[in-house]
Amino acid sequence: AEAELETGFHETIEHEQRIEPRDWMPDGYRKTLVRQIAQHAHSEIIGMQPEGNWLTRAPSLRRKAILLAKVQDEAGHGLYLYSAAETLGADRADLTDKLITGRQKYSSIFNYPTPTFADVGVIGWLVDGAAICNQVPLCRSSYGPYARAMIRICKEESFHQRQGYELLMCMMRGTDEQRAMVQESVDRWWWPSLMMFGPPDDDSPNTAQSMAWGIKRHTNDELRQRFVDMTVPQADALGVTFPDPGLAWNAERKSYDFGEPDWSELKAVITGHGPCNAQRIEQRKQAHDDGAWVREAATAFAHKQKETA
Ligand code: 3HC
């Protein structure tokens, strides 16, 4: 019977169909999905901090309202993804504990500071742009709940990307100081955005198996290249440059050649030694502790409901 179930699993994957929560699946498939979905959720939740930093200081009510909507969306993306992880038997409280105690990761990109308001636009343009490149293929991931969560997340991510680009367009039509602020921000975020796609394929222990299981649809380098090809023309239209002397159109490949990201920096940031890692985890821990009374009250209320039901 187990052999039949296993055959059924592989046939479903081969026919590009969906594995659903109640289907049989190899332990490794379940494990790597919990790993990737949980870390994706953690990224969305931690990702609220760099931008949230500007909520009280946005330059206009319109900018504040847009930023508020975006940060709220990120929280929602985190909740969808924790729910998707729960369909695999993961426990949300346990995942939060693993994040806070450093036993699970979140995206390297959120460990960088946001010292100027131009960062809000550049994060929208480059970070959400990179997230779209990475997440659109995940709409076709073989695990049903993950793929379906991605469909709505990608729609909202596109709004985030457009609002960031529109903000930068306004600043580029502004004063010399505003233009310089945008370029300075782009110079800080370009390489970390490329690193967001993960290590190079020849240093990516999970890619082969994730591709075989239809969890990942493209490799890290393929998506990184797709992001560069999509973004360089947008930089030209904006009037900014990227800090990479190796960036050049390759007519043969019909793609941009670009320099090698600093993989030692990615390793350092992933292992907790980025500019803001400690602060991001401390703030997440503080928010979790501050919210304990809400969880206790909700649990007490639920018990009372059950008793009187
Ligand atoms: N930041 C942190 N950790 C990273 C990383 C990054 N940018 N890139 C790779 N890693 C980790 C991996 O998690 C893995 O460690 P683990 O085995 O302990 O999980 C290790 O480095 C080796 O990397 P692999 O390439 O072998 O790992 P994956 O096959 O999982 O690929 C990934 C990494 C491309 C990030 C993949 O997990 C993925 O596509 N995840 C879903 C997308 C996601 O998480 N995006 C986060 C972006 S932020 C976001 O979406 C918010 C939006 O609002 C901006």
UniProtKB/TrEMBL annotation:
Tree of life domain: Bacteria
EC number: 1.14.13.149
UniProt KW keywords: Oxidoreductase
InterPro entries: Aromatic_CoA_ox/epox (IPR052703), Ferritin-like (IPR012347), Ferritin-like_SF (IPR009078), PaaA (IPR011881), PaaA_PaaC (IPR007814)
Gene3D superfamilies: 1.20.1260.10
Pfam families in alphabetical order: PaaA_PaaC (PF05138)
BP terms from Gene Ontology: phenylacetate catabolic process
Molecular function GO labels: phenylacetyl-CoA 1,2-epoxidase activity
Keyword Nucleotide-binding: no
GO cellular component: cytosol
PANTHER family: 1,2-PHENYLACETYL-COA EPOXIDASE, SUBUNIT A, PHENYLACETIC ACID DEGRADATION PROTEIN PAA
Name under which the protein is recorded: 1,2-phenylacetyl-CoA epoxidase subunit A
Source organism phylogeny: Bacteria, Bacillati, Actinomycetota, Actinomycetes, Propionibacteriales
The gene coding this protein: paaA
